[in-house]
Write a structure and sequence with these properties.
By secondary structure, the chain is of the alpha+beta class. Helix content is 26%, strand content 36%. It contains 4 helices and 5 strands. Strands 1-2-3-5-4 form a 5-stranded mixed β-sheet. Strand 2 and strand 3 form a beta hairpin. The chain is elongated, with a radius of gyration of 20 Å. The chain starts with a helix and ends with a helix. 23% of the residues are buried.
Length: 175
């Protein structure tokens, strides 16, 4: 099974990338949404195709296992994921307005979004990081990173018990 962060990133990409039933898109990036922090796009593509969005995890904190079951084993772990949706576009004289427009579109797309498989997750915008890249490019590129906190739970992986020889043997075999 894929790691939960991978599933959450993919869900954000799908939410931002896929067209609506009428064929329109949630953002002006349209289907140019990528689940990587490395931009798989060039300055020329931004010029020809328009804005793009990158989706990546910045960090994740986990709490102690919670909610002990009848066996005394923890049943879930609280996780706090910091996820970034970073919009990039060619910078012009109105770059700040263009970046704010992108931010507004992304925020609207995520408003009310329930992550498939993590429907009880809480999604909260916690920061916007705004910048203009001028190094190693011919034309400045504006970027706005919307930083999201996603609080969700995963099942705790039960440990083998010395009272259960079969489970202990399977654990030692790496199963």
């Amino acid at each position: 099974m894929a790691h939960p962060r991978k599933l959450i990133r993919a869900s954000f990409v799908d939410r931002l990338k896929n067209s609506l039933p009428d064929g329109s898109f949630r953002t002006r990036a349209q289907s140019r949404v990528y689940k990587s922090r490395l931009a798989p796009i060039s300055e020329e593509e931004l010029n020809e195709d328009g804005p793009a969005i990158l989706v990546y995890a910045r960090m994740e904190e986990t709490g102690k296992p919670q909610d002990y079951g009848v066996e005394g084993d923890a049943t879930h772990v609280e996780r706090n994921l910091t996820l970034v949706t970073e919009a990039m576009l060619l910078a012009g004289s109105e770059v700040d307005d263009a970046l704010d427009d992108m931010a507004e579109e992304i925020e609207a797309a995520i408003d009310g979004f329930m992550i498939p498989g993590f429907e009880s997750a809480q999604i909260r915008l916690i920061e916007s990081d705004i910048d203009v890249v001028t190094e190693q490019v011919k034309r400045p590129i504006g970027a706005i990173g919307l930083v999201w906190n996603i609080k969700y739970r995963t099942n705790w992986r039960a440990r083998a018990s010395a009272n259960d020889p079969d489970a202990l043997e399977a654990f030692l075999r790496g199963e």
